Amino acid sequence: MHRCLLALLLLPAAAWAQSADQLEAIVSTDLGTFRFEFAPDKAPKHVEQFLKLARQGYYDGSAFFRVVANGIIQGGDPLLKDPKTAKNLWGTGGLNLLPGEFSDLKHVAGVVSTVRIPNKPDSDGAQFFVCVVPQASLDGQYSAFGRVTEGMDVVARISQAPADANSITDKPVRILKVTIEKKKEEPFLNATPAELRRTVTLKTTLGTLKIQMEPDWAPNHVRNFLKLTTTGWYNGTVFHRISKEFVVQGGLSTDRSSGPYHSADRWVHPVKGEFRDDVKHVRGIVSMARTDDPDSATTSFFLMLGAAPHLDGKYSAFGRIIQGMEILDAFEKEDLDGETPKRRLEVIEATID
Fold first, then answer.
1. Where are the beta strands (DSSP E) in the chain?
2. Beta 199-204 vs 347-352: how paired, if at all?
3. Domain assignment of residue 304, given as a range
4. Which of 202, 257, 274, 275 qualifies as a cystine partner to 218, CB 3.0-4.6 A?
5. Is residue 212 part of a domain?
6. What is the CATH number for 144?
7. Strand runs (DSSP E) across 69-204, as ranges?
8. How many domains does the chain have?
9. Which are the contacts of 16, defined by CB distance < 8 A and separation ≥ 6?
10. pLDDT tens for each residue of 191-212
């Protein structure tokens, strides 16, 4: 078996000419599909091996057979392609193929890494595991080579498959197929200022308002908001804070009606602050929330209910309400527990006009 695997690795590289950092693996399973991108700068030989084997159909029909609930999932053993393989052999195939490639890529949630033979250095193989939550104890011990970009809910679901005391599943979760595709393109990534000058319609529990994007104020924050809007990331999120005569805040994945994971999570990242003293935080202005770090805005935004000059030049205002100002009045009439609305107030749907 190992001789056959090594023969695959010696095939010409011409078929894999496309840069690995522009590719993704799509892993289709009994319980759904997830995608992950590669880190060829961290573990080039492991990335090359996975790409070659996946394109040869090596993983198709194998399975995830070891799980720790909300911890990790492990799969890729070719022996499991045969449903008659004895359970005591699960996890013994497809090993001892590569030396380790340790890097500074941490085993955080979503990281894809390589299985090796316990207590045997440089015995990495074709089997892989995915972290559902951070696994700091594995850093520098295993060869991480990718990270999930979409479908973490599926990874978590696989981790919850029934298993015995040794974390071996009662029934394998089948890997139906692994395919390699070009990465999805991030919406609005290269949009011009003119293309960013759009209007967003925000349909909420209390009514509909329209927000005019202002790329002259904060082009990258506009780009970020339009990206999250067009992908549906904001749909079903809640307004979690109302501070009367000050702000209404929303835009977190927490308590989203469809769940905390979204296909556009891959494009959620901090945006560098774009602060202007000449843009005033007055009623109707839309701005981005952040932590004490000025460059930490990601998804959460706020609607101004009143003037707040202490925010000017310190928060990135990126739009203004041009229709539906009466919705702000409705927010201020809501019953609160402190600054938390007593009833669920949602972004039902956000669309770009």
1. 23-29, 32-38, 63-68, 72-75, 111-114, 128-131, 144-150, 168-182, 199-204, 207-213, 239-243, 247-250, 285-288, 301-304, 317-323, 336-337, 340-341, 347-352
2. antiparallel
3. 193-352
4. 274
5. yes
6. 2.40.100.10
7. 72-75, 111-114, 128-131, 144-150, 168-182, 199-204
8. 2
9. 48, 51, 52, 55
10. 999 999 999 999 999 999 999 9
